[in-house]
Amino acid sequence: MWSLQRSMIYFPDTSEVPAAADVLEGGQDLTLHTSDGLELEAWFAPPTEDAVDRDMAVLMAPGNGGNREGRAGLAQHLQDRGFSVLLMDYRGYSTNPGRPSENGLIRDGLAATDALEAQGFAPDQTIYFGESVGGGVVAALLIQRPPAAAVFRSPFTDLAEVGKRHYPWLPVGILLRDRFSVTEHVSRTQVPISVIRARHDTVVPAELSAQVAAAAPNLVEEHVLDDADHNDPVMFGPEIADVVVRIADEVS
Prior knowledge:
By secondary structure, the chain is an alpha/beta fold. 31% of the residues lie in helices and 20% in strands.
C-alpha cells in the first residue's frame, strides 16, 4: 500500500490534448518551467471578444483526474466573464513529463504563476481557482505567492481526512506521504476566499469543504449546490464561474 498510494490519489488522463486555439477563443499553448527542470504544457486564453476585460487572470488548478481538456468549458465561461485564464496540467498529466506528488504539484503551480507574470498578470491581478486536489495546490500558493483572491471548489481539510473516509480500514494518517494541509494554510492568510461545495459530494465529503470555509479568516462566500455531486456538469458550469465573478467584484 505504501508503494501504490500515489496511484490511488492521482488519476491522470495521459491523452494528447488539442492545441489551445482549437478549444478556447484566442487560446495559446504555453510551456511552464518548473524549479526542478520540467517543461509542462498549459493553455492560456484572454477574455472573449465580446467580454469586458477585467484585467484579471484566473489560474485554474485542476483536480486529480483527467486533464485540462475536461476543464475547457469552465475556462470558456470565465473568458466570457472578462477573465484571462491559465489552465494548467500537472506533471504526469496529458503528455507532460514527470510523476505527480504533493511537492511536484506545488512546484507546477508556482511555475504557472511565473507564466502568468510573463503574460502581464502579477499575483495581485490573479485569482487562484483550486478544484479538489487543486485546492491543496492553491492553499500552498496562498502562503508563497498571495493572490488577489482564491476560490476553492470541493476542497478538503487535508488529504488524510479524505483517505480515512474512503479507506477506513487503513492507517491513512501514518501511511500517507502527500498531505495537502489545506486548512492549515487557509487559516494563516487574509486573502479573500470563496468556497464552493456540493451537498451530496461522494468524493470529498461536504462537511470537509464546510470546515475549510470556517477556517478562512476572510471568507467572502460559501456557495452550496444542493443537488450536485463532485463531478456533475454543474460543477464545471456557469454557476461556478459566477462565484469567481463575485469575488473579483469584491476585491476590485
